[in-house]
Amino acid sequence: MPYTAELKKLIKIVEKTRPARVERKKRGEEFPPMSLKEREEILKYHPDFKEDGRSEIKLGPNKGYRIANEMVSLLHAPSRVDPDRVDLSSADYETDVLVIGGGGAGSAAALLARENGVKVIIATKLRMGDANTMMAEGGIQAATKSEKDSPYYHYLDAMGGGHFKNDPDLVETLVTEAPKIIAWLEKLGAMFSKFEDGRLRTMHGGGTSRKRMHYAGDITGAEIMRTVRDEVKNHSTDIKILEFSPAVELILNDKGVCAGALLYNLETEEYLVVKAKAVVLATGGSGRLHIQNFMTTNHYGATGDGLIMGYHAGVPLSFLHTVQYHPTGAVFPEQAEGLLITEKFRGAGANVLNVDGEQFVYEREPRDVEASAFIRECLERGKGVPTPTGKFGVWLDSPMIDILNGEGTVRREFPGKWILFKRYGIDITKEPMLVFPTLHYQNGGLKIDKETKTNIPGLFAGGEVSGGVHGENRLMGNSLLDVMVFGRIAGKNAAIYAKNKFKDGKLTLDHVKKYNKELKKVDIDTDSRVAPMLLPDYSNPDVRKKQLTTRYVGTIR
Amino acid sequence: MSNDVETKKSKKQDNLVPIYIMGKRYDVPSSLTIQKAMEYAGYQLVRGCGCRGGICGACGTVYRFPNSYRIEVGLACQTVVEPDMYIAQLPFFPGNKAEYDIEKLEPTGATIAKYYPEIYKCVGCGTCTRSCPMDIDVMDYISRAIRGDIEGTAKLSFDCVMCGLCAARCPAEEVQYNIAILARRLYGRHIAKRASHVQKAVEYVEQGRFKKGIEQLKKMSVEELKEIYNARETEPHMGPEEWTPADKNNVIIE
Predict the structure, then answer these.
(1) What is the ipTM of this complex?
(2) Looking at the complex, does the CB of residue A340 fall below 8 Å from at least one CB of chain B?
(3) Is the pTM of this model over 0.90?
């Protein structure tokens, strides 16, 4: 849907202020960045600080921790299946390493596990590659240009972005492994954007001190995901893929180690036992929980399943009190609501503007600061741009990019968004986009060490499901790096553990029975709730009202 | 097609339009995408739904309008409904995927033909191009692959979301999107120039050249770290690629 007449009028204001803003950009005059103190002040507008959006976890390793209501609600839900009805005496599948999750981290784990000499099963909820990795856009950070950058500066940037709360060992691992990841992906054939001589093109992102964001057009995540997925599918004898088969609980054994998982066939509704010597949790994020009713950039299956399964087994959580809202989610047209508009637009020079066509914030603050500034501008200062659906947004002045960098830049560097908006009748080289913060990334998750070990022997975790790498706020380009670095480490370590350390024993779901019992003790209303959620509920209430079947028997269930 | 009773019912409710999901009529708000219209109608999606953002290829959809012979295509999550759309989805199509070791391959047409010999059955009908929801000229990139222009195939197919609509309709039974990804990987691995600075950076890391600097940072208090963080130089936004920092301490210039 092209811009309405009212919005086109407001765009004229943007066009009026543009020449002066372009000149300022060319002179290197930026809107003043915030001091650390000013950053602290603006964060009060961040959704994380809304007290009634959070509640206390009442049981388990993180009892007392206040996190988003939507996450707590799932942690307070009984298991999806009655553990007493599961026959653990014989496994439906048996393997060395079970990887739960078919995204970037899961694929990297499977490849490295196989390289280290074991057989792998990947169990994924939807299709292989249906993950947030596929949707990541802007880039992957790595200090590959040693004459002007190094892991030292990458470390500083990541710590600063994370409010200096990140686990130092995890950050050190992340930034030191980074150049190797770029080399690995280049060797697998990923088509990174390059200069004529083969040098990789890199850009700034929010909170970076050096231009170290490597990218492939504006679909870096898709390019990485397609490449590693293709490589996974080149090893079908060693890596078996079970699609539409999400895991719903981890299985332990009587030696207290992780020994597999219970899968649910989404199509036949059967529960299947997978016996494994090591398990890698790579289930990704939880944007489809729609925290505080925010739209999300995440894929359909991002419902935080790994958090639930890990927590049931006793793995502690960390840094879940902060969730990342991507500052620039599309807010027009309605059909594109919540869609990720990469930070790379701001990295390429586009200004962020209020309804008066004026800047109000430095474009490359870290995401939580940037998002808070947008929220304050719209809600408190009343300078947001109103949309036809009653929402507010701010302008992202994409036409500046061609003016600053040469005609054709937007079409070359952002082909995905160019075609997407073209379908809606908007030419982003001529008209600015309308954006607002959208729920984007789970900063924290299951606690891991730098070897991706959890507190349960044989259970490893990597990628968005884990916590500590990004502290309280992730920098752009560090998630694609996270999934590759820690996915690979998890796969390698799971393989080594499977070959040398695994202790076989009797399979058990006792931890699930204990958890369900504990739920009853702390007096939580558990009716009509189960966890993990698996898929968000977008059903139409009017349709629900007409679903009157009394009892489900036989074929028509 | 629609009788008077049905038309009257549809007109009563504002902004509802009739669409036909696998032949069955549902009246849905006109602003919805096909995907959201299916959910509005009562379908709870398991297959045929992925990123909901136009990049994963899960929701390839074909549709027609009455009194038109044309088969239209689109991604359900991106395509807005129109009155009288006749819709069917393609959540899966069996496609031939070859297995290969990219390291050992030559970036030539012969390689493509070795793994996907059916490429020579292409009759140049252009159905694949007309079936692409991403506006890619699929026939062009296939013909380039046949001619051995791997770079051309790679660059032209870059936006491919691998939805499978092309393969489903191809009379030569090719799986264009698998041919394309082989070409892209061949290009990335064997044709595109290597980034030598990456190899250098990997070597420096393996030599432990940055270890001491980071060890020092790890030992610092938060206050000390903040000071270093605030004092660090930022590469100028519009600066040249050749920029180097004034502080040469933690970089390597050789």
Answers:
(1) 0.94
(2) yes
(3) yes
